[in-house]
Amino acid sequence: MQSRIVSLKTRNTLRAALLGATAVVAIAGLTGQLAFSPSPAIAATAQGVAPISFADTVEHVRGAVVSVKVKIVEAAATADEDGDQGMPSLRPGDPLERFFKRFGGQNGMPGMPGGRPQGPRTGQAQGSGFIISSDGYVVTNNHVVENATEVSITLDDGRSVPAKVVGTDKKTDLALLKIKDGGNYPHVDWSATTPRVGDWVIAVGNPFGLGGTVTAGIVSARGRDIGSGPYDDYLQIDAPVNRGNSGGPTFNANGEVVGVNTAIYSPSGGSVGIGFAIPAEVARDVIASLKDKGSVARGWIGVQIQPVAAEIADTLGLKAEKGALVADTQTNSPAAAAGIHSGDVITAVNGEKVDGPRELARRIAAFGPNKSVEIGYVHDGAEKTASVKLGALPADKSDKGEASPRAEPSDFKSFGLTLAPATGGKQGVVVADVDPDGAGARKGLREGDTILEVAGHAVSRPADVRQAIDAARKDGHKAVLMRVKSAEGVRYVALGLTAAG
C-alpha cells in the first residue's frame, strides 16, 4: 500500500507526506528490558561537541522499535466512483454511449459507467512503532491503523505477534496498541525534558521499504503548525525521514523518545530535511489517556476564536496583536456561563499569557473536563478575569452556512460586495455577490456569508451596514469590524475605510 499524501496549507509546489507506508524492520536481536548507560555520543554531547558515533545509543534502543502491519477493508464503491477506473463523460447521442450502455450498464461490466458496485476491497498497510512498556504497549500513528481489521507486530528478533488497538486519537494522529502475547519486551521511555532547537536527534524508520534505517540531525524548530489539526505543535527536525517512517520514534542522544515521526514537508515526497514529529510532552499525555480510558477527553469552554490581526487590534483599541478574539460563544457553554461574549479577547489562562488561538486551544484541551481555570480577557477595553469550569469537548459539528438570497440587493462597491437581507426569519445581512478583486474577497468574504454585526451593532438590512460604516468613518476609524458567519464558523473581519461604501 502506498504512503498517504496530505496537502499542507502552503504553496502548491510543496506538500506533506504522512509517513505510513512501510514499517520499521527491527535491527538485530536485543531482548529483555533496556538499561541505559552513558555512551560516547552522550558524553560528547554533554561537552558541547558533535558526537563521534550514535552506535551505542542505537544499540540500546533498537530492540524497542517494531514494524506495525495491518489488514484493512476499504469501503465498497462502484466503478464510476473509483478515480482510477472512471470513464469520460459522453454527450447524449454519442456513438460510444450505446456501446457503454450495452457492455457496461446492461451486462454489468466492472469499470464501465453504470457497472455493478464493487464489493469491499481488502488491503494491507505498514507503519512503524515503538514499545513503551515491558508488557507490550506500542505507540504508532492513528493513520497507520485506521480501519484496521487485524494488526500484527514484527519484533526486533523477527517474530511476528498479534496485537490489538487499545485506542486512537485522530486530532493528534496517535494510536496505542497492545501485543497480545505475554512477555518481557524491551522498551524505551519518554524524555522528561523538552529538546532545544539545535539539540541532536536520532530517527529510526524504514524509508521506502529499505529496512531498518537510522538517521541523525538536529531539532530545527519547535511549535510548528502544519495545518493538520487544531492542536498542531510539532517538532521540526532535519534528521532525514521519508515515507515509511510513520509512527517511528525520534530519540535524543540519551536514547529517550522526544517525538513520534508523523509527516514530512517536501515537493517530491522524499526527505528534504524538513520532518515533523509529535513532541513527547503531547504524545505522553494522549497515550496515557488512551491506556486508561481508550479515548482522549479534552477541556472545552465553548468559543470560536481567531487571531488578533493588526486592523482588529487597532479597531478594538488593543496595545498588542496578542490573545484570542472570541468570534462566537456557544449557548449554554462554560464561557457563556462565565460572562465571556463575542468581541472579547482572551489574553491569559491561570495567569499565563496567551499569544494566540492555537495556544489557547491546546492549553484548555490539556486541562481536561471538570477543571476550573481562571480566564483573563479584555471586554470593551477593560481587563477582566472569570473562573470557568471546563466542559468536555463535544463531537465536531458541521455548519452548512446560509443560502445566498437575491432579494433587495445593495452594492458596496468600495468593498466589492453586494449585500441582501437574510430570509426565513434569520438574522444578519447576507453577502449576495463578491467581486473577486475587491477588498471583501481579499479579506476572505465569500458569497453566502452572513454579516451579523458591524462595529458592534447587530444588522438586519444593508442600510444598517451602511449606517454603521458611515458612523465608524465619521468617528475617524481606519477600519470597521464585521462579525461574519460562514460555513467554517463565526469570525471577525476588519475592512479598511479608505473610500465611501
Write the layout of secondary structure elements.
Layout: E1 5-6, E2 15-18, H1 40-46, H2 55-61, E3 65-74, E4 77-78, H3 95-106, E5 117-118, E6 121-131, E7 137-140, H4 142-145, E8 148-154, E9 160-169, E10 174-179, E11 200-205, E12 213-224, E13 234-237, E14 249-251, E15 257-266, E16 275-279, H5 280-293, E17 299-300, E18 303-307, H6 310-316, E19 324-329, H7 334-337, E20 345-349, E21 352-353, H8 357-367, E22 372-379, E23 382-389, E24 391-392, E25 410-412, E26 417-421, E27 429-434, H9 439-442, E28 450-454, E29 457-458, H10 462-474, E30 479-486, E31 489-496
Antiparallel strand pairs: 1-2, 2-15, 3-6, 3-8, 4-5, 6-7, 7-10, 8-9, 9-10, 11-12, 11-14, 12-13, 13-16, 14-15, 15-16, 17-24, 18-19, 19-20, 20-21, 20-22, 22-23, 25-26, 26-27, 27-28, 28-29, 28-30, 30-31
